[in-house]
Amino acid sequence: MNDKGTQKIAIVTGGASGLGFAIAQKLVCKKITTIIVGRNAQKLQEAKSQLGEFCHIRVADLTTLEAIPAWVEMIVNEFGKIDVLVNNAGINMKKPTTEVTDLEFQQIIQTNLTSVFTLSREVSKHMIRAGEGNIVNISSMAAHYGIPKVVAYTASKSAIEGMTRSLAVDLSPLGIRVNCVAPGFIETNMSAAALNSDPERKNRVLARTPMGKLGVPQDVANAVYFLTSDEASFITGAVLPVDGGNSIGF
């Protein structure tokens, strides 16, 4: 392992696939020691085999809130510090509002919001001691306008953006920058299949995207890396849409 003092250490939740994998790939390319976290050991192992020596894997269910403080402590003991936290893990559910149960709503809030708060709180304690750090949250275009049948997801992502601003105000005086990336329609395996099977929806998406195309996961990864880098040293509390202009398109 590199010298603990100089080597940057990053955590990416949900880092085994999709946007999380692309973010981890970007950080690893920049020779940042990157710990990817997820629930599926096999998926994490497959991701690590592609990401190489700068990638480490940790199997964890971050919705088990009471386990997070000890888990963070363990990471710090092993790696020496945490410089970057990317809160990417999240779940979605498409269902008419009147059919969403209280339990389903709470499960999405617990995964997408509460666990993000708990992990950020615990990691920031160590960042405060170090006098520096970066937290990047992943939001969604669902926080910017109404999308049908995703009420719980929308509530969680709207709250993430508010929490980003509040954390930035609390933590930035202590040397920690907190920002947020709000991806638009990004071409992942899952979304591409969904849009290709619904040409009308795909045309509607592209028609209101001024750049006239879908993004790729690397677009989001580049934005996340920028926000954690020294190039963004005077940016905190920002929500950066990476959406080809979709959120302002008409």
From TrEMBL:
<dbReference type="Pfam" id="PF13561">
    <property type="entry name" value="adh_short_C2"/>
</dbReference>
<keyword id="KW-0560">Oxidoreductase</keyword>
<dbReference type="InterPro" id="IPR020904">
    <property type="entry name" value="Sc_DH/Rdtase_CS"/>
</dbReference>
<comment type="similarity">
    <text>Belongs to the short-chain dehydrogenases/reductases (SDR) family.</text>
</comment>
<dbReference type="InterPro" id="IPR036291">
    <property type="entry name" value="NAD(P)-bd_dom_sf"/>
</dbReference>
<dbReference type="GO" id="GO:0016491">
    <property type="term" value="F:oxidoreductase activity"/>
</dbReference>
<dbReference type="InterPro" id="IPR002347">
    <property type="entry name" value="SDR_fam"/>
</dbReference>
<protein>
    <submittedName>
        <fullName>3-oxoacyl-ACP reductase</fullName>
    </submittedName>
</protein>
